[in-house]
From TrEMBL, chain A:
Taxonomic classification: Eukaryota, Viridiplantae, Streptophyta, Embryophyta, Marchantiophyta
GO terms assigned for molecular function: aminoacyl-tRNA deacylase activity
Residues in YbaK/aminoacyl-tRNA synthetase-associated domain copies: 26-153
SUPFAM superfamilies: YbaK/ProRS associated domain
InterPro entries named among the record's database cross-references: ProX/PRXD1, YbaK/aa-tRNA-synt-asso_dom_sf, YbaK/aa-tRNA-synth-assoc-dom
Protein name from the UniProt record: YbaK/aminoacyl-tRNA synthetase-associated domain-containing protein
Family note: Belongs to the PRORSD1 family.
Organism: Marchantia polymorpha
Top-level taxon of the source organism: Eukaryota
From TrEMBL, chain B:
Record lineage: Eukaryota, Viridiplantae, Streptophyta, Embryophyta, Marchantiophyta
GO terms under cellular component: cytoplasm
GO molecular function: ATP binding; tryptophan-tRNA ligase activity
NCBIfam families noted in UniProt: trpS
BP GO annotations: post-embryonic development; reproductive structure development; tryptophanyl-tRNA aminoacylation
Cellular compartment(s): Cytoplasm
Family statement: Belongs to the class-I aminoacyl-tRNA synthetase family.
Annotated protein name in UniProt: Tryptophan--tRNA ligase, cytoplasmic
UniProt keyword list: Aminoacyl-tRNA synthetase, ATP-binding, Cytoplasm, Ligase, Nucleotide-binding, Protein biosynthesis
EC number in record: 6.1.1.2
InterPro entries in the record: aa-tRNA-synth_I_CS (IPR001412), aa-tRNA-synth_Ic (IPR002305), Rossmann-like_a/b/a_fold (IPR014729), Trp-tRNA-ligase (IPR002306)
Length: 328, 420
């Protein structure tokens, strides 16, 4: 296990990755009020950070503006944990996962591998501030970064920033699902891997040879290969990111869609061929097209939008870098 | 924008309902029956809306087969089911848009939404699905207005909350599959200013207080925010409101897909346009999306059993259709086999005519069900399949929309390939 990160290693990490950060040293502080004595006058979004745990020992880091009024009962329900499913995490758990002392909870601590499974919920309100302030893994300093700097940091450590309205009173009922439940890092979010394996296995078991005749050899190969790997192993605990502009993930989605359509179509086709004696090739081709086109187009436009977004983000970053260095 | 009585699309909601609305009442006098305004929709004696009468009453045009054929010819692909099935059934100067397109002249699309906290239901998706089709078929840019200011004023929520809702709704809109290289989404609180505001003032100077009282029913007690809102929704009809897209060009036409209850509102915009040197925006208008309970039911945000939401699970969709979808089938098996189903009031068939792409299959179902050979259960089963596929696809797409993507869609940026 890697040694825990320190203030120095964190600040070095930020600098190396060109995330602008300004750190203010002060005597050790344990509370938000004490901290405010030293840095409260600085303009921007000051934070209060709570590490909470639920009955299944999952950890949730709530990082909010100091001015936010947070009702833990409401939050607990929004997370799908019932009215009293959240407690403050005890110090030993905080130490073990975030590797920071009491009074020092900060999103920066998620850099530690031990904090891999901590869910982070950030206050929406941070996004509108020019700067946001957090402890840099130590109680004797406060570091200011821009909200996009924070986002960049989080992405570098493999997380997608999640901003929510922490103050919103959302009444959970039959009609209103817990709106934050999907963010909870959970074993079950990994079922994508398991389900894909199942589809591929089933597809192989259906009598495909007839239909695959004339199809690309590669497709056959990729259908056969996963069967051997498709054992129901324990899924890793990882936060599932949207596929975005990920070519491999998109290709996988397209193939899954295709293979599950093959399965369905095989049944439909054999009925039609019996009933109307039409050519297998025409029937399959036309109805496959009908079934697949909306799904594929939807996937591809999502892919395009994600790729454009990546370019856009890079463009903005390179512009502000150029500005920062005095060039235009 | 807000939808009323089940209609999706571009709309403005107003508070007072029971004061005399000069403009509409005048034309309603002969009808003395149905009421269709941006804030109220009701059929004659609580029955169905007579759309043909509505077209006459408003003075817009019926979208005939000739126009649909022309669209297919010009775009080189089959017309969207919403056109073929008469969901989008009326227009103003859509033929001029096609004329311009044929000559190689440019036009752009404009639609919008009043961001609410409710998840979108299928009725909300209809105008966006159609707008996406128009964008893809004609390869034109699209501006989408999120009227967070309107919600802030009419629903009395904070500025910050309405801005937050705008972003949330933007994600659902993006999930409908709009092309980021041709689409600009903006919220009023972010964007109003500059050239857009100049157009708002130019428009505002053309409309009197009496006129907006007549169109929207404003009364003395309404706060002045409401009264000054209409120009905000009119301004996107003019290309100079978007200098980053169209520069100072005034000759780019605008096509607005919306529900027909918006017609009076855009009549106001079309009236102002030539007086300030702009082309009149064209409209292409849809029917109202029926509630699950049928024509007598009104889709209500507070009663989730009246609609299918994009957040519904496959199980919920199945339950809602089976339990609440109003059936035109016979009361008993014998009656049904003998007389067939009443397709006029049957909701599953109506929903299928919105969402089932295959014309041949739809005809087959109508024939068999109408003759009593097919049962309500089978029709509902097919509908459940179709709707589940749509909702699932939307859900997957929605999961892929990141905050950065929303920022990119909403960034004031040029769109160099918007006609590519």
């Amino acid at each position: 296990m890697a040694s825990p990160h320190t203030k120095e290693s964190l600040l070095a990490f930020l600098e190396v990755n060109q995330i602008e950060a300004k750190t203010y040293d002060h005597p050790k502080v344990l509370t938000v009020e004490e901290q405010a004595n030293y840095v409260g006058h600085l303009e921007g979004g000051h934070s209060k950070n709570l590490l909470l745990k639920d009955k299944k020992n999952r950890l949730i880091l709530i990082s909010a503006l100091t001015s936010a009024k947070i009702d833990l009962k409401v939050l607990s329900q929004r997370l799908g944990l019932g009215k009293s499913g959240l407690r403050m995490a005890p110090e030993d758990i905080m130490q073990a996962s975030l590797k920071v002392p009491l009074g020092c909870v900060t999103p920066f601590a998620l850099q530690n591998d031990s904090a891999r499974s901590v869910t982070l919920l950030l206050d929406e309100g941070f996004r509108m501030k020019s700067k946001v302030f957090f402890h840099p893994l130590s109680n004797d300093a406060t570091t200011a970064v821009s909200p996009s700097g924070l986002d960049k940091f989080l992405r570098l450590i493999g997380r997608e920033p999640v901003y929510v309205d922490l103050e919103a009173i959302v009444v959970v009922s039959k009609e209103q699902q817990p709106d934050l439940a999907s963010y909870l890092v959970d074993m079950s979010t990994e079922c994508i891997t398991k389900d894909q394996a199942t589809i591929e296995t089933r597809a192989v078991q259906a009598s495909l040879p007839v239909l695959i005749q004339g199809m690309n050899d590669d497709v056959t190969k990729s259908v056969v290969k996963p069967k051997s790997k498709a054992s129901p192993t324990a899924p890793q605990m990882e936060f599932v990111k949207p596929a975005g502009a990920d070519v491999q993930a998109t290709t996988k989605s397209i193939l899954d869609e295709f293979l599950s359509a093959v399965q369905k179509e095989f049944q439909v086709t054999s009925q039609v061929v019996e009933k109307q004696g039409e050519e297998v090739a025409t029937v399959t081709s036309n109805s496959w097209r009908q079934r697949l086109v909306p799904e594929l187009e939807s996937m591809l436009v999502a892919f395009k939008n994600a790729a454009y977004t990546e370019g856009f983000v890079a463009g903005i970053a390179s512009c502000s870098r150029a500005k920062g260095k005095g060039q235009t | 924008m807000e939808d009323s009585g089940g209609g999706g699309g571009v709309a403005v909601e107003s508070a007072a309902v029971d004061i005399s609305k000069q403009e509409v009442n005048a034309s309603n006098a002969e009808e003395a029956g149905q009421v269709v305004t941006p804030w109220e929709v009701a059929g004659k004696d609580g029955g169905k809306i007579d759309y043909d009468k509505l077209i006459v009453q408003f003075g817009c045009q019926k979208l005939d087969q000739a126009l649909i054929d022309r669209v297919e010819r010009l775009t080189g692909k089959p017309a969207h089911p919403f056109l073929r099935r008469g969901v989008f059934f009326a227009h103003r100067e859509f033929d001029k848009i096609l004329d311009a397109y044929e000559k190689g002249e440019k036009f752009y699309l404009y639609t919008g939404r009043g961001p609410s906290s409710d998840a979108l239901h299928l009725g909300h998706l209809v105008p966006f699905m159609f707008t996406k089709y128009l964008q893809d078929a004609f390869k034109v840019p699209l501006v989408i207005q999120l009227t967070d200011d309107e919600k802030c004023m009419w629903k009395d929520i904070t500025v910050e909350r309405s801005q937050h809702l705008a972003r949330e709704n933007a994600k659902d809109i993006i999930a409908c599959g709009f092309d980021i290289s041709r689409t600009f989404i903006f919220s009023d609180f972010d964007y109003v200013g500059g050239e857009f505001y100049k157009n708002m003032v130019r428009i505002a100077k053309c409309v009197t207080l009496n006129q907006v009282r007549g169109i929207f029913g404003f009364v003395g007690e309404d706060h002045i925010g409401k009264v000054s809102f209409p120009p905000v929704q009119a301004a996107p009809s003019f290309p100079t409101s978007f200098p980053h897209l169209f520069g100072q060009r005034k000759d780019v036409r605008c096509l607005i897909p919306c529900a027909i209850d918006q017609d009076p509102y855009f009549r106001m915009t079309r009236d102002a346009a030539p007086r300030i040197g702009f082309l009149k925006p064209a409209l292409i208008e849809s029917l109202f999306f029926p509630a699950l309970q049928g024509d007598s039911g009104k889709m209500s945000a507070s009663d989730t059993s009246t609609a299918i939401y994009v957040t519904d699970t496959p199980k919920e969709i199945k339950t809602k259709i089976n339990r609440y979808a109003f059936s035109g089938g016979g009361d008993t098996m014998e009656k049904h086999r003998k007389y067939g189903a009443n397709l006029e009031v049957d909701i599953p068939v109506k929903y299928l005519s919105f969402f089932l792409d295959d014309d041949a299959e739809l005809e087959e179902i109508k024939k068999e069900y109408g003759a009593g050979r097919m049962l309500t259960g089978e029709v509902k089963q097919r509908l459940i399949e179709v709707l589940t596929a749509i909702v699932e696809r939307h859900r997957k797409a929605r999961a892929g929309v990141t905050e950065e993507m929303v920022n990119a869609f909403m960034a004031v940026r040029p769109l160099p390939n918007m006609y590519g």
